[in-house]
Design a protein that fits this description.
- The complex is a heterotrimer of chains A (308), B (227) and C (259).
- Chain A is an alpha/beta fold.
- Chain A is built from 8 helices and 12 strands.
- The longest helix of chain A is centred in the N-terminal third of the chain and has 16 residues.
- Chain C has 10 helices and 10 strands.
- In chain C, helix 7 links the parallel strand 7 and strand 8.
- In chain C, the strands form 2 sheets. A 6-stranded mixed β-sheet of chain C has the order 6-7-8-3-9-10, with helices on both faces.
- Classes of the chains: A alpha/beta (308), B alpha/beta (227), C alpha/beta (259).
């Protein structure tokens, strides 16, 4: 099963050690961006090369891997990364959140609560939360060093000034353990509350930017806000049309050119598990599997040119 | 109030071969509170130079210039700034202001510097401008566009806005008509009456006779070599 | 009689023997002066005279090799960078010649003014916005421009916005590098008047670097003349300009075109 032409999990042992050292440092200093010597991977930047390298450094043969992209197990990105590790590491794979030991994710935290011992690996496009307001890397590093985070609130101020509320809906900045301001990768702000006090280890890898950072289990993570404009973890005001869940993060799917639309859980495993347990939403008829919806979503994303 | 002793002044022209030009030696005079002393002497005798030295605008080569208990010849810049703000007023022949600032603000500024309430400062400025016959429609305009006589009156209003204990007047009535000249002389007499010590240059002999208690000929302070 | 009150005798800033080289070349050498609360100190000299080096060394943008800078009794050069940067966003302010260097061009006027408030812990949007509105008014920018970006402003407005952004935390010491440099003459006048009013009302201490003698005459209480990195003359502004003692100052003053 394993392709013997490759070392276990593709990367050579020295490289994996180098990445593990960066991970350990990240875990020791929660929220701090640790530089690492990111390698060329057999996939383009923007496809999760940072996350893949972190996953490769964490995997052991006994692991059971789950890969999701925007919550779905069966979109192109998720499928190709899962296949990559099946071929190069020969590890078992799963779609069930609870059964996975390592979960690599792009843009979501699974709905099912994580448990101790699990590792959640995020793919990060731009690790520097201050980047858009202060383009100089020398300056942003200084700002982190000296805890000068006023600028982060300027971004939120601009949001309120323009939109009447904090319109940042994903990659919503957080402060970790009262020290470092961190970009949680482009997860929806709905997921932000799950960053803090989580039982799993959360690791973040940015391949192009050559940075790794981490949130160890049970770390305090606070979303930045104003006293008079507090953080709200918002989602579409609907229930899932397939499984009827009211508390999960939803994708909006356009179903025809007449403006019809449906709302479905973005976490396909969560949705399917609920349907199997007999939950039904507005359109939740048995033949309408969540995987088919995921497929149509994939086509939608490709048409819109949506990648990282 | 004003006491000058053994004052001398030289100019060194570094860019003209380092020529040293002595312009004053042995300058001495006193002005008591409530007294007005006029400086006379031919043009170039050093009247304006002496006034500028008293104001701290020119450096003295030696001697003492006591205003109250401060020796201007030795004082640090910040002491002179404070002296000018609180104690020593100066009405020069020329108006030097930030362009585009309304006349009423120009006149009120010395009071604002002293921390007087803006409303009170403007009221005093308005009263002086009215007294000096500056039409009210001009108060909101910058004085830089005014005629020579109007600028002169704005300058006087500014110089009299705060009731300085000591005043230097350089030709205060020079380009004024009879009516305004009388107003200015009244202001000077009023200042004397409240106890101001005034040192002035008046070419206008009638004005001099009206306000001056004594005259001092600065020709006597000219250095021998230059005389 | 008021002149018996003692002049306040504690300088806000005391600079002693400040020296900065660029390799073998002198940036500024052995500069010493005191600045008292509420005083405006002008530094003039031609390009390359060391005035900008001096300003940058004072403001902490350059590290001088020798000398001492005491601010409010504290040794600035011995401070940690955290302390010094805290100082420069609270008690100090720096107005750049080019407003683009001192503003965030991609952030609205309100955000630009509010940044220093947020940097020192302001976390109430309504309060921050109210303060920003107040400050825009004080620098004569209409309140309805609060959400516009500085790129939509004229040069004079940008410079006034930069001043508001700097003064919002009520600093005590303001460094200004040619603040009227790139502006039209008519705009300069308005800015000068604004600065004079703010200096007077807020009791600011200011160090202003310029090559424009007319600007220092109107703004500065005291003047320092620099040549080849050295201070050749200092004193009361009008005294230095009207009765210059040093050969270089005499040349500088006599070279100004009269209008």
């Amino acid at each position: 099963m394993t392709d013997q032409a490759y070392n276990f999990a593709y990367l050579d042992e020295q490289t994996k050690r180098m990445i593990r050292r960066a991970i350990l440092k990240g875990v020791a200093v929660p929220g701090y961006q640790v530089p690492f010597a990111s390698r060329e991977m057999p996939m383009p930047y923007g496809w999760g090369t940072g996350g893949v390298q972190v996953t490769a450094a964490c995997l052991v043969p006994e692991d059971r891997l789950k890969v999701i992209d925007q919550g779905a197990d069966d979109t192109t990105n998720a499928v190709s990364i899962r296949k990559f590790f099946q071929r190069t590491a020969g590890v078992e794979v799963t779609e069930a959140t609870a059964e996975a030991t390592v979960i690599q994710t792009r843009h979501r935290i699974p709905e099912t609560a994580l448990s101790e011992g699990q590792i959640l690996v995020y793919q990060v496009p731009i690790p520097e939360p201050l980047r858009f307001l202060e383009p100089r890397e020398t300056e942003t590093r200084k700002m982190h060093e000296l805890e000068e985070y006023g600028l982060m609130h300027v971004k939120l101020y601009e949001d309120i000034a323009r939109h009447g509320e904090i319109a940042t809906s994903y990659a919503y900045p957080v402060k970790v353990e009262g020290r470092y301001v961190m970009d949680p990768s482009p997860i929806p702000k709905f997921d932000n509350p799950k960053l803090g006090g989580n039982a799993a280890i959360q690791l973040f890898g940015a391949g192009r930017e050559q940075r790794i950072y981490a949130v160890p289990p049970y770390t305090q993570v606070v979303s930045l806000d104003f006293d008079d404009h507090p953080f709200v973890a918002s989602k579409a005001p609907h229930d899932c049309d397939l499984c009827g869940a009211s508390e999960s993060y939803l994708d909006e799917v356009i179903t025809d050119d007449q403006g019809s639309r449906m709302y479905v859980c973005s976490d396909t495993d969560f949705c399917a598990t609920r349907q199997e347990a007999g939950h039904h939403g507005r359109l939740g008829v048995p033949q309408f599997s969540s995987k088919k919806i995921a497929k149509s979503l994939e086509g939608f994303c490709a048409a819109e040119g949506v990648t990282e | 109030m004003i006491r000058i002793e053994n004052l001398s002044k030289t100019f060194t022209m570094h860019n003209q071969g380092g020529a040293i030009i002595p312009v004053m030696a042995g300058g001495a005079l006193q002005v008591a509170p409530g007294e007005c002393v006029g400086l006379i002497g031919q043009s170039g005798a050093g009247k304006s130079t002496l006034m500028r030295m008293v104001y701290g605008n020119y450096l003295a080569a030696s001697g003492r210039i006591m205003i109250g208990d401060l020796d201007v010849a030795q004082a640090a810049p910040r002491q002179i700034i404070r002296l000018r703000r609180e104690t020593l007023g100066y009405v020069s022949q020329f108006l030097r202001v930030v362009p585009r600032v309304p006349t009423i603000e120009v006149v009120a500024e010395p009071l604002l510097q002293l921390g007087v309430e803006p409303a009170a400062a403007r009221a005093r400025a308005a009263a002086l401008l009215a007294q000096l016959n500056i039409p009210e429609r001009l108060w909101s305009l910058s004085p830089t566009t005014f005629s020579g006589g109007e600028q002169q009156r704005v300058n006087i209003a500014r110089g009299f806005a705060h009731r300085y204990p000591a005043l230097l007047l350089d030709e205060p009535t020079a380009s004024l008509d009879a009516v305004n000249r009388a107003v200015v002389l009244d202001l000077i007499l009023e200042a004397k009456a409240r106890g101001a010590a005034i040192l002035g240059i008046f070419h206008d002999e009638a004005a001099r006779a009206t306000v001056c208690d004594r005259l001092i000929d600065v020709t006597g302070f000219m250095p021998k070599a230059a005389a | 009689m008021t002149f018996h009150q003692p002049v306040q005798d504690t300088p806000l800033l005391r600079v002693t023997g400040l020296t900065k080289h660029y390799g073998a070349r002198i940036g500024c050498a052995d500069v010493s002066f005191d600045l008292y609360p509420g005083e405006v100190l002008g530094i003039v000299g031609e390009s390359g005279s060391g005035k900008s080096t001096l300003l940058a060394s004072l403001a902490g943008h350059l590290r001088p090799e020798f000398g001492r800078i005491a601010y409010d009794g504290r040794d600035v050069l011995a401070m940690s960078e955290t302390e010094r940067r805290r100082l420069s966003r609270t008690d100090w302010a720096y107005v750049h010649q080019n407003p683009r260097d001192g503003l965030r061009m991609g952030v609205s006027a309100g955000g630009n003014v509010g940044e220093r408030l947020m940097a020192i812990g302001g976390r109430h949007y309504g309060d921050i916005r109210a303060k920003a509105t107040d400050w825009l008014g004080r620098v004569e920018i209409a309140a309805d421009r609060i959400d516009d970006r500085p790129s939509a402003f004229s040069g004079g407005m940008q410079q006034r916005l930069q001043i508001a952004r700097n003064l919002v935390t009520a600093p005590r010491l303001v460094f200004m590098d040619e603040p009227t440099g790139g502006l039209d003459v008519s705009v300069q006048a308005r800015l000068l008047d604004l600065l004079r009013g703010l200096v007077r009302d807020l009791g600011l201490s200011v160090i202003i670097v310029t090559h424009d003698l007319a600007v220092v005459r109107l703004l500065a209480d005291r003047l320092m003349v620099m040549k080849s990195g050295h201070v050749v003359e200092q004193g009361l502004t009008d005294q230095v300009l009207d009765d210059p003692q040093h050969a270089y100052t005499q040349l500088l003053v006599s070279s100004v075109l009269q209008v």
